[in-house]
Sequence to fold (387 residues):
Amino acid sequence: MDKDFLDKFTNKKRETKGMINIDPLQAGGQLTDEARQALVEWGDGFSVCDFCQGKLEEIKKPPIYDFVHQALPEFIGADIAHLTHGAREGKFLIMHALSQPNDFVIIDKNAHYTTYVAAERAGLKIKIVENSGYPEFKINVDDYEKTINEIQDEQKRKVALIVLTYPDGNYGNLPDAKKLAMIAKKYKIPFLLNTAYAVGRMPINMNEIGADFIVASGHKSMASSGPIGFIGMKKEWEEILFKKSQYFKKKEVEILGCVSRGTAIMTLMASFPFVAQRTKEWSKQVEKAQWFSEQLENLGLKQLGEKPHKHDLMFFESDKLYEISKTHKDGAFFLYKELKKNNIWGIKPGLTKNFKLSTFAANKENLEKFIKVFMNVLGADTGTDTK
Fold:
């Protein structure tokens, strides 16, 4: 191949490195120094498998066994944990293992798109529990019971699984998961909690909530390079979800024998002590998010979703910014360019009327800078106290 063509693929620099990052997808996944060292140390292909005897989670050097069988279950309050390539793979694994084609799965309207496609891939019929609509988009878990009865009475079909997104990736709402767990138990239906934006950011205890399963994301919320995630579950489900191959006795069918055999698991482990500690500071993260939301609303923006907000992920709308974009020389890209000029990353290019962001990785000084940029853009002189 031509050398100039091949040179495209080398020495690629990340444009956003070192910027104030408010991207919800990235805020919880930024690596620790220890994880960056692990990334280099274990970067060679399959180097993690140097001491594998046929099952990744049984490797004791490096200490993957201790991490998966002790650290993770204790951290999330589950009986058992298993690695996956991410939360979406965990959702599909659970749906596929528990169901037969044309069984029903009940999911919340705020669910991530991967919940839908996982159910489709598993051959399930989807029933949606609607949210409350604008402006809060809340999920009332009592509506799950109505939906269960509708399926069982009218459709005469089996409900294989109930899924709740906690929090959702649009508005950062945290529904009443404990109450839904009681409803699921009443109808003897397995209950899956999608915690891709929760585990690693905030304290989560699966058994205290009463869920049968949780799925977590390492690259979204646990300072891992990814792609990686894991499942937490009650022990009673392990043989169903992780049945062994009849041909290769150590290999588990649903995960195609092995997962995350590279730097993802090493960065996940290397960041874990820091991640476990930071979840103890969750109340401070909530206070910061609520303060930030108040400052933006003082500038005329509107935070959608639950109030007072209880998560770092937030959704805002702004008619003022949208009106500015109509006449600005940069059009709908003016806000993105203005933020980038001020070393701020995370609001997608072309968004002005509504957008989501996360305050998780930004400190108070970073967020004050963000607010001042918005004040300048809006031409605001509101007397807003950013201190």
